[in-house]
Structure formats: structure tokens, C-alpha cells
Design brief:
The complex is a heterodimer of chains A (277) and B (162).
Chain A lengths: L1 H29 L4 H65 L9 E10 L4 E7 L11 E4 L2 E9 L3 E9 L4 E5 L5 E6 L4 E7 L9 E4 L11 E9 L6 E8 L8 E5 L5 H6 L8
Antiparallel strand pairs in A: 1-2, 1-12, 2-5, 3-4, 3-12, 4-5, 6-7, 6-9, 7-8, 8-11, 9-10, 10-11
Chain B lengths: L1 H20 L13 H12 L2 H19 L5 H14 L7 H6 L2 H21 L7 H26 L7
Helix pairs in contact in B: 1-2, 2-3, 2-4, 2-6, 3-4, 4-6, 6-7
The chains are: A alpha+beta (277), B mainly alpha (162).
Chain lengths: 277, 162
């Protein structure tokens, strides 16, 4: 009997080991949301990020010149826009005062640098130099001058991992700036799309898309991209809206984390994916 | 013998840093080569199938842990890639596989399997057609990785020290 098992093992040991390893892999998938796994992950990427940030510094030096030039140009454009917005702001303050609305326009920003990127087609993530000691928490949006980049997923003391918009696990409620219609946006591995958009919705190519105040993850208006086209138009009752993001994820280097002061009352009421105890 | 266990992890650390910092500079339409896979295939062919599977498992585990991917997705894909690469670990043909055009072809095969399995486990959207998913998330990254792996063939040392 023992000899039989020994022979079977000798003949098929590679397959047995393969099955054991795959089962272990599947068990690991089921453990993803366990707090212990999250803690181990925070230590692992925190340690790794401190090394990769050195390499990232060297790589980024070459790109600084071109980025500086682009930023100067952008600064000039923003200066012109800001003047215009300042006038609108004054009028807005007056009008808000008249109708007694609370001011929600000030968001504290934490400037951080991207130290590494995992550019997989479905699980795009970035590691940033800024963590719990800077007040960064899971669920906070990551932005740059062009728009929303992603949402913080996990933090260690000095580093954080953010899921970018090109991550299938990140789904956001977004809004068409012109028609004020909301929909769910996600990454399908190829494009950013708004899904299950009724054909009666007034969404057209060229419309600006931004985050919606209905979102339980990012509830402040941050630009995301522009509508490229509507697909699945012929069949069914829903359209899919393809969005071209404003942000170039591959080139993003210096970003900001928006430290949104969460409303505990609102969080308790809503089903929030990033809700914490 | 000890170096068989130590050097792959040293190279893994170096390649993982490159994978997460430099690789975006050479991405084509968001498709990037997988340096870790090239290392895994090399050592799987150089040693044997069991070594390749276990190395793939550990590489995948560390990769998932560090990059924030779904823990377990790379574990399974890299284990299967190591298993596939291990089929080419024939003592008589090992030298040929590692230093000829065969190596990029093995990387291509393993790359397609690795990318496809990784996407399968980490994607929630399975509405796309199978052929499209295979092409977009399996074949293209596999071809790019295979092209980059030609570097290994060109610089493969005649007297092996790794």
C-alpha cells in the first residue's frame, strides 16, 4: 500500500504540488479583507517603498525639466482662470449667505510623490510617499492638476497605496457636468466606462465628467474626464459611455491627497466601502 | 547550491524595483513587460518544475503583497507560469532553451498564461468576449515580455554564475 502511494507520488508529484499551491492561492484570495493581512501588507509595501523611492528619485530627475515647463504653462493658464473664478467666488459667497448654505469649498491637500507604480491592465495601483503620520487614511481621493487619479486603499506609517481609476475594483458614482445626471463609472480593463446609463439620459460626446456628491467614496466634485462615445446604442435599454480620463496615469509623479473631513453622521448612514470602525 | 535559493530573490528585489519605477517609461498603450516573469521562466527552465512552481508562488505572493494587487491573483498566475516553464527543464536541452530563440518563445507562452490567469482572477468584468480578454490581457503583454526577454538570450553568460 505504502509502495503504491509512493509510486503515485513519484509519478505525479508535480501535479500534487501544483494543486496544493493553487488551493493555497485561492485561500489567500479569500483572506484579502482580513485585518491581519492588511497589516502585513502595510509593513511589506512600506519597507519596499522606502527602497524604491530612491530609484524613483533618480528616474524622475530626467523628467523634471519637461514637467517644469509644462507646469509653468499650466500656472499661467490657472492664473487667468483663477481671476475669473475669484469674481465668481465673491458672487457665490454673497448668494450662499443669502440662502444660508454651508461653505464646502475648502479641502486640505497633502502634497505627495509617487514612488512606484504597478501598471497592470486590471489592477493599476500607485505607491505614494505619505502615510498615516501625514493624516492619510483609506478612502481619501488622490488628485493632480488634471483631475482625479484614484483613491487611497491602504496605508503604512510613511507610505500609502492608492487604487487608480484604471483598477477594476474601484467603482465611483460620477456626474455629467452639463446634464447633472449620475451613473456608476468603472474600469473594464480597456476603457473607463459609465455603465447602465439609460438611453433616455442626456449624455453627449464632449461632456465633462466629474465625481458626484452622491458618491460614498469621493463626494466632492473632482474632474475625471470627457465623454468619448456611447456604445451598445443599438441593443438593450442601457448605453455604456466611454470616458477619456484627463489624467495621464503613466506620467503622473507629484500628486495631492485630499484630506476630506468625513462626516461621521453621513458615514454611519451610508453604505461606504471604505467605512472604518 | 545555496546561491540557487539566494540569488533569485536578490534579482527579484532588483527587478521588482525596476518593474514599479522604470517600466512605465517603456509602456506601450498601457501594456508593460513583466520582468519578474522573465526571471521566473529562467530559473524554472534552469532548475525543474517543482522549483519553478514554488518560486512562482513566492514571487507572486511578494508581488501581490507589495504592489497592492488582489492577494492571491499573482500567486496563482505565477505558480502556473512556473509550472509551464518547468516543462522545458530538460537536462539535455536546458542549455539550448536558455540561450536560443526558444527562450523568448517559452516566455511568450508563460507570459500569455500568466497575464490571462492574473486578469481572470483580478477582473470582476467578464462580460468581454473570451477572445478579446485573451488578446488584450494575455497575448499583448506576453509578446512584449517575450521581446524584452531576448536580452537574456543575448547576454546569457557562457559560464553560468546565476
Amino acid at each position: 500500500m505504502i509502495r503504491f502511494f509512493s509510486n503515485v507520488w513519484d509519478s505525479f508529484k508535480e501535479y500534487f504540488i501544483l494543486i496544493i499551491l493553487i488551493v493555497l492561492g485561492i485561500i489567500l484570495i479569500s483572506l484579502n479583507q482580513k485585518p491581519a493581512v492588511k497589516s502585513v501588507r502595510a509593513v511589506a509595501f512600506g519597507t519596499f517603498a522606502s527602497v524604491s523611492s530612491l530609484v524613483s528619485d533618480v528616474v524622475n530627475i530626467g523628467q523634471l525639466k519637461s514637467e517644469n515647463l509644462r507646469l509653468r504653462e499650466r500656472n499661467a493658464e490657472l492664473m487667468l482662470q483663477m481671476n475669473k473664478l475669484r469674481e465668481y467666488g465673491i458672487v457665490n459667497e454673497e448668494l450662499k449667505g443669502l440662502v444660508n448654505l454651508k461653505d464646502t469649498t475648502k479641502y486640505p491637500l497633502v502634497p505627495v510623490r509617487i514612488v512606484s507604480k504597478s501598471l497592470s491592465t486590471s489592477q493599476n495601483t500607485i505607491t505614494i510617499l505619505g502615510g498615516a503620520v501625514d493624516g492619510i487614511k483609506p478612502g481619501m481621493p488622490v488628485i493632480n492638476d488634471q483631475g482625479l487619479i484614484g483613491v487611497i486603499y491602504s496605508t503604512s506609517n510613511d507610505y500609502s497605496i492608492a487604487r487608480t481609476l484604471k483598477n477594476m475594483d474601484l467603482k465611483l458614482t460620477v456626474k455629467d457636468e452639463r446634464s447633472r445626471l449620475d451613473a456608476i463609472m468603472k474600469w473594464n480593463g480597456d476603457d473607463l466606462i459609465m455603465i447602465n446609463v439609460p438611453k433616455t439620459f442626456d449624455i453627449k460626446p464632449g461632456d465633462r465628467i466629474m465625481t458626484s456628491e452622491l458618491s460614498s467614496i469621493v463626494s466632492i466634485p473632482i474632474p475625471i474626464g470627457v465623454v468619448m462615445e456611447l456604445t451598445n446604442v443599438e441593443t438593450g435599454i442601457f448605453n455604456e459611455v466611454r470616458i477619456k480620463p484627463y489624467v495621464n496615469f503613466a506620467k503622473a509623479e507629484n500628486v495631492f491627497v485630499v484630506k476630506i473631513i468625513e462626516s461621521k453622521e453621513k458615514n454611519q448612514l451610508e453604505l461606504n466601502f471604505f467605512n472604518r470602525k | 547550491m545555496r546561491s540557487d535559493y539566494f540569488i533569485p530573490f536578490l534579482l527579484f528585489a532588483v527587478l521588482l524595483i525596476l518593474q514599479t519605477t522604470v517600466v512605465n517609461l517603456i509602456s506601450i498603450n498601457g501594456i508593460v513587460p513583466d520582468f519578474i516573469l522573465i526571471l521566473l521562466v529562467f530559473y524554472s527552465v534552469k532548475n525543474n518544475q517543482i522549483y519553478g512552481m514554488i518560486l512562482g508562488f513566492i514571487f507572486g505572493f511578494l508581488f501581490d503583497l507589495i504592489t497592492g494587487s488582489l492577494l492571491g491573483s499573482s500567486v496563482i498566475s505565477k505558480t502556473l507560469a512556473g509550472f509551464t516553464a518547468g516543462y522545458f527543464s530538460n537536462e539535455n536541452k536546458r542549455e539550448f532553451y536558455l540561450s536560443s530563440y526558444a527562450f523568448p518563445l517559452i516566455v511568450l507562452l508563460c507570459g500569455i498564461i500568466d497575464s490571462f490567469i492574473f486578469s481572470f482572477f483580478s477582473s470582476s468584468d467578464l462580460r468581454s468576449s473570451f477572445v478579446f480578454l485573451m488578446l488584450q490581457q494575455g497575448v499583448y503583454p506576453g509578446i512584449y515580455t517575450a521581446a524584452i526577454s531576448m536580452v537574456v538570450v543575448f547576454f546569457m553568460p557562457k559560464r553560468s554564475f546565476i
